[in-house]
Amino acid sequence: MPRALALSIAQLGDRAILRVLAKSAALTLAIFAALGAALWWALDAAIEEWIVATLPADYSDGIAGVVALVLGLLAAWFLFRVVALAVIQLFADEIVQAVEARHYPQAAISARTLPLREDIANGARGAVRAIAFNLVALPFALVLLVTGIGTALLFWFVNALLLGRELTEMVALRHASSRTAGASSVGGLTRFCLGGVVAALLAIPFVNLLAPVIGAASATHLFHGRPRHAPV
User: Fold this and answer.
1) What whole-number distance in Å separates Cα of residue 63 and Cα of residue 29?
2) Could you tell me the superkingdom of the organism this chain comes from (predicted)?
3) Following DSSP, what letter does each residue of 103-162 receive, concatenated?
4) What is the distance, to the nearest Å, from the Cα of residue 169 to the centroid of all Cα atoms in its chain?
5) CA 145 to CA 64: how far, in whole Å?
6) Which residues, in sequence order, are CB contacts of 85 under 8 Å at separation 6+?
């Protein structure tokens, strides 16, 4: 795992990786901005109607704006990893190809290139799974709010499980006929560690734009850097 992360970070300066990073970051921010604007408008309209009807006019607009801002930021934090995961699926081929071309040229020869339609479908499925996993965890996270740190740890754990599997299967798909075929070459504990690191990076502003690319590149190293018959 440390080797995979070190090699991935070292390759961030490659021209091919920089192109993917620029495209994925731009698309992620564009989608996020559009979703954020729509969410803000919907929340502000819904909250303001209720607050204006129940509070003095002098305060209703300001309170509605503050509540909408808080809810919008929480939703933004929740949605960022979903959007980032879906976007990175679109550019996964380019990341895997760049890493394999530099470190695993023999594997690059045998890899298959996924058509855009399949990449979009994989991205959509990943986004749906991410939303579903986090929604299932949400009631437990609300209960854990009283602990102060329990909610953050629960979301980190859930997304570590999700991201580790999604990223390694994303690489395996380019070397096998099915999504899960070959992914078992990366053991469950290693997948969890990878997902945990990426989930932690996604929580850091600005670094979270690098996290999906680092995760995809690290998954490629983990997939090719271990004996296929001896998962750990």
Assistant:
1) 28
2) Bacteria
3) H-HHHHHHPPPPPHHHHHHHHHHHHHHHHHHHHHHHHHHHHGGGGSSHHHHHHHHHHHHH
4) 14
5) 23
6) 123, 126, 127, 130, 163, 166, 212
Nearest to 198 by CA among 185, 186, 189, 207: 207
Q: Give the global pTM.
A: 0.76
The amino acid at residue 71 is L
In this structure, are residues 42 and 21 in contact, taking their beta carbons and an 8 Å threshold?
no
- Structure tokens belonging to residue 143: 């209960």
Q: Residue type at 171?
A: V
**Paired tokens of 45:** 């309209």
Q: Which two tokens stand for residue 15?
A: 């021209």
Tokens 């920089």, residue located = 18
DSSP 178: S
Dist. CA 92–CA 119, nearest whole Å = 8
pLDDT tens for each residue of the chain, 232 residues long: 889 999 999 998 888 889 888 888 888 888 877 876 777 777 667 766 666 666 665 555 566 667 667 766 776 677 777 777 778 777 877 888 889 888 988 877 877 777 778 777 877 887 788 888 888 888 888 888 888 788 889 989 998 998 888 888 888 888 765 454 555 567 788 899 999 999 899 888 788 888 888 998 999 999 887 644 433 3
Q: For residues 44 and 64, is the Cβ–Cβ distance under 8 A?
A: yes
Q: Give the integer Cα–Cα distance in Å for 108 and 106.
A: 5
